[in-house]
Every structure is written in structure tokens, then in C-alpha cells.
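Whiteboard transcription, Tuesday session. T.W. wrote the C-alpha cells on the left side:
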């Protein structure tokens, strides 16, 4: 009986793909030496009072609510390879036109291609910009040394996005193994220990009030200050997002619509 229960538990824990193994696969597709694939090198966004952002290709999660589409789900046929200098120059030109002090890359996973990222951050450190590294925390949570290596970059802020409020919800939203839900919390701990500026963002469109409280409790245990800068994210039901949710039988409890949160 005990053996059967352990086998059942092991099967439940191991269901889904491993984001760390998917990281390796994605890097083989979207990274070439110090070059990385991008679908677009710069675009102005309204976030944080105005940001200039590139559109990366390649992610190590497959979120069912993802708005990114081709850069995540079709990395082989999407985008072109660019050097860090090419990316920085494009971000710099658009940021100057729009008066932005924040630059970033988004729509995929920001930690793929460590050499490319570090060379890009070296260029940012020679400027007056602050670079916002968008990450789901999988790689940084799995590799403490990666977080430690970010310490030398002074114009860097890391935004760690947490998908859901518990392992099962995370698995439902991403199909990844439930145990990898712990990685973004480890990433935040590693970053804080390394004195790297960071904050957390929680995708809560599919969560209930108790789940959100649990997420806040977990973050408080990592560091109380994380609650002050916590971003609570709600999905925007773009047509392709709505279609993907419908195909997976997912219904959000809340959405972002015209700049406001709408409870459903």
C-alpha cells in the first residue's frame, strides 16, 4: 500500500515537462555564440511610465495565457539573430526618440543566452539607462551562480514573474512539472542575497483570494520588502489568448481591460 502511494505521488509530482531541460533545447534554437534571436529590436511601451523594449524569441515555459505567440511557440521560424551591440543600438535610438530611461527585452525568457545577456548589460552599464530583465525565474532559481554573476551590473533591475499561486495552479497554467513552481522564489532569494535589484510579479487572473494570500505569504518569507513592490498581473484577453484559453478549458477570474481590472 505504501509503495503504491509513493508511486502515485511520484507520478503526480513528475507530470509535465522540465523547464530546465526546455531551457537547453530553446538555447540550441535561439542562441548562436553571443547572438540571440529577436522578432523586433525595439518598440515603445507604456509600462513603468514608458519603456523601450525588444521582442526576444524563445522561452522555457509554455503558459496557456501567453500573449507572445510566435516568439514562444514557433521559435525555429521566428526572428533573426542579433549581436548585443545591434540590440543596444536599436533600443538606444528608440529610447532617445521617446525620452525613455528604462529599456528591456520582453515577450519571451530574458535569461536565455547568458553570454549575449552579459554583453548587452555591459553596454547598458556604459549608458544612463536601466535595463529591466524580464524572467520567469526558472534559470536563476536553478543556478545561484547565475544570480551572483549579475551583481557586477549596476544599471540592472530583475523582474521575476510567478505563474499562479501554488504548484498545481502553476502546472495547470503552464503544463510544467509542479515542483518547478519553487524556482522563482529561489531566484528572488538568490538575487536578494547577491544585492541585485529585483521585484516579483504574480499572475493572479486564475487565482482565488486564499491563493493570493498564500503567494503574499511565500514572498514575505523570502523577504518582507517584496510585498511593497509586488505587481499583481491580470491577463489581457487578446483574441489568440482567448482562443488558447478556450482550447485548454481555462476561465480567468479577472482580466485587464482598457487599463482596468475586471472581475468575472
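and on the right, the sequence the group agreed on:
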Amino acid at each position: 500500500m505504501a509503495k503504491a502511494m509513493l508511486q502515485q505521488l511520484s507520478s503526480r509530482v513528475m507530470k509535465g515537462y522540465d523547464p530546465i531541460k526546455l531551457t537547453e533545447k530553446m538555447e540550441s534554437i535561439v542562441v548562436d555564440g553571443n547572438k540571440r534571436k529577436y522578432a523586433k529590436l525595439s518598440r515603445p511601451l507604456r509600462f513603468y511610465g514608458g519603456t523601450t523594449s525588444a521582442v526576444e524569441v524563445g522561452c522555457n515555459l509554455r503558459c496557456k495565457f501567453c500573449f507572445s505567440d510566435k516568439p514562444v511557440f514557433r521559435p525555429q521560424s521566428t526572428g533573426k539573430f542579433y549581436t548585443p551591440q545591434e540590440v543596444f543600438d536599436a533600443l538606444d535610438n528608440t529610447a532617445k526618440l521617446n525620452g525613455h530611461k528604462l529599456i528591456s527585452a520582453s515577450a519571451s525568457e530574458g535569461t536565455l543566452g547568458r553570454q549575449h545577456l552579459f554583453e548587452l548589460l555591459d553596454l547598458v552599464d556604459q549608458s544612463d539607462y536601466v535595463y529591466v530583465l524580464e524572467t520567469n525565474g526558472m534559470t536563476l532559481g536553478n543556478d545561484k551562480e547565475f544570480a551572483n554573476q549579475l551583481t557586477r551590473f549596476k544599471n540592472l533591475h530583475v523582474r521575476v514573474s510567478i505563474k499562479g499561486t501554488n504548484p498545481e495552479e502553476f502546472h495547470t497554467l503552464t503544463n510544467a512539472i509542479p515542483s518547478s513552481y519553487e524556482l522563482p522564489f529561489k531566484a528572488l532569494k538568490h538575487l536578494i542575497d547577491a544585492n541585485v535589484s529585483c521585484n516579483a510579479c504574480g499572475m493572479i487572473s486564475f487565482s482565488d483570494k486564499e491563493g493570493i494570500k498564500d503567494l503574499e505569504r511565500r514572498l514575505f518569507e523570502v523577504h518582507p520588502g517584496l510585498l511593497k513592490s509586488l505587481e499583481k498581473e491580470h491577463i489581457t484577453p487578446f483574441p489568440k489568448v482567448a482562443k488558447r484559453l478556450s482550447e485548454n478549458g481555462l476561465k480567468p477570474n479577472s482580466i485587464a481591460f482598457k487599463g482596468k481590472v475586471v472581475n468575472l
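Someone added at the bottom: Residues 84-98 form the longest helix (15 residues).
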